[in-house]
Amino acid sequence: MPNQPAGSGHRAAPVHTDPAEVSVLEALSAVADPVRLQLVRELAGSEDWTRSCGSFDVPVGKAALSHHFSVLRGVGLVEQRDMGAKRVNRLRREEFEARFPGLLHLLLRADDA
Amino acid sequence: MPNQPAGSGHRAAPVHTDPAEVSVLEALSAVADPVRLQLVRELAGSEDWTRSCGSFDVPVGKAALSHHFSVLRGVGLVEQRDMGAKRVNRLRREEFEARFPGLLHLLLRADDA
Fold first, then answer.
1. Contacts of residue B28 in chain A, CB cutoff 8 Å?
2. pLDDT in tens, A50-98
3. Are strands B51-52 and A86-91 parallel, antiparallel or unpaired?
4. ipTM score for this prediction
5. Which helix (H) or strand (E) element contains residue A74?
6. Which residues of B touch A109 (CB under 8 A)?
7. Which residues form a coiled coil (chains A, B) (predicted)?
C-alpha cells in the first residue's frame, strides 16, 4: 500500500452495511448458522467494544471466524473497529431492530428447544 | 405395505412437527432459503387447503419441491393433507406465531430490500 504510515495496521478497515439495505432473506441467512448465532448471543451479553474477535468461545479457526464476522457485518448486525492489534465488536441493536423488528429478540431468547 | 386397502394412496401420509418443539436455529434455517420463502409467501396469500404442491410458481423440480415442503413441515410452518391425487397445504399461522412471535410477519412483509 503506497503512502501508508509506518506502524499503521496492515489490515483494511472493516466495511459495514446499513441494515436498511439488507433483505429479509439476507438477514435470515446470516443468522441461520450455529456459530454466528453463538457469536451474536455472546456479543449481546457484553458491553459494546469490549469483545475482541478472538475472545469468543466458538469451535472454528481464525479464517472461518473472520468469515463469520464478515457475514454479520454484511447484514448490519455487528460493527467492528480496530484497536491496536485487536478488532473489537459491538451489536447494532437499535439499527437492526428498526429494520427487522423482533428478530434480534428471537435470536437472544433463552427458551430454545 | 400389508393390509392396505385397494385404491388407497401409495404415499405415506405427511409427518408433522409441533412448532413448540422447534428451535430458533431450525426455524431460521428452514426459512432462510429463497424457494421456501416464496412458498410461504404464496401460501400466505391463499385460502387454507386450496393450494396443491404443484400449484406454486417456483423454479425447482418435483423432488426438490417435495424436499422444500418437507423442511417447512419439519419446523411446523406448513401442514399438508392428501386429497385424492393431490397434496394440499395450509400455513400454520397461529401455531408458528405462538412459538416465534413476529417471524412470520417479517417473512411476509413487502418492503424487502
1. 28, 31-32, 37
2. 999 999 999 999 999 999 999 999 999 999 999 999 999 999 999 999 9
3. unpaired
4. 0.85
5. helix A62-74
6. 24
7. none
Distance between A41 CA and the closest CA of chain B, angstroms? 12
B50: Cβ contacts below 8 Å, ≥ 6 apart: B88
- Find where cell 410461504 sits: B40
* Strand residues in A1-113 grouped as ranges (E): 51-52, 78-83, 86-91
Q: Please state the domain extents for chain A.
A: 34-108
- DSSP state letter for A90: E
Task: Give contacts of A 83-102 with B, CB under 8 A.
Answer: 100-102
- The alpha carbon of residue B18 and the mean position of all alpha carbons in its chain are separated, in whole angstroms, by 13
pTM for the structure as a whole: 0.87
- Chain A residue numbers with beta carbons less than 8 Å from the beta carbon of B103 are 102-103, 106
Fold of B34-108: Arc Repressor Mutant, subunit A (1.10.10)
